[in-house]
Design a protein that fits this description.
This protein is an alpha+beta fold. The chain is 16% helix and 28% strand. It has helices at 2-24, 166-173; strands at 29-31, 48-49, 52-53, 61-64, 72-79, 88-97, 102-103, 120-121, 143-152, 177-187.
């Protein structure tokens, strides 16, 4: 009887060890049900203005694999192909709480009303504190929209505010990023 109990205890210890290894090896991952990685962003998410006729709605996003110690997230969308290679910031969001596992469609609406509690928008290259969808010049090859999710070691970024731009956010993140992942979507206007 005692050897059966010992064997059962050993099996439990081994299973728990495997589960801990799997949890420790989790990798931060970002996906969207609206488009596949490297795929085309649907017209619905396109900017409205400058000749673009989309709904200017941010896509839904989901993430998994938060690293141990993650206390908040930040998210950006950057188009490196825009502005003659200087790039364009389409979305800047920070102080997303640690329990969040994604953002709903249209979380990028102005006024932070669709963001999780305490999360805030920063300034995009459009000059607004809200999501600004793709709007590449007509005839350009499809642009790449890089969605970057950062898992952070602090709950609130000191000095971040609604006027924080993408480059400023990148500076504020230095030394606080536990993990980061990217998702790329493409969009062009023939």
């Amino acid at each position: 009887m005692m050897s059966v109990v010992r064997a059962l205890c050993l099996v439990i210890v081994l299973v728990l060890g495997v589960l801990q290894i799997r949890a420790a090896g989790a990798t931060l991952s970002l996906t969207s049900p609206a488009f596949r990685p490297g795929g085309t962003l649907p017209h619905h998410f396109e900017y409205r203005g400058y000749g673009c006729e989309g709904d200017d709605v941010s896509p839904p996003l989901h993430w998994t694999g938060a690293p141990a110690g993650a206390r908040a997230y930040a998210l950006t969308i950057f188009d490196p192909d825009a502005n003659h290679g200087k790039g364009w910031w389409h979305w800047v969001v920070f102080d997303i709480p640690e329990g969040a596992q994604g953002l709903v469609e249209n979380a990028g609406a102005a006024g932070d009303k669709n963001l999780p509690p305490h999360a805030m928008h920063g300034l995009t290259s459009f000059g607004s504190a809200a999501y600004g969808g793709p709007c590449p010049p007509v005839g350009d090859p499809p642009h790449h929209y890089v969605f970057t999710l950062y898992a952070l070691d602090l709950a609130t970024l000191p000095d971040a505010k609604p006027t924080t731009t993408g480059p400023q956010l990148e500076e504020l993140l230095k030394g606080h990023v536990l993990a980061k992942t990217e998702l790329v979507g493409r969009f062009g206007r023939p």
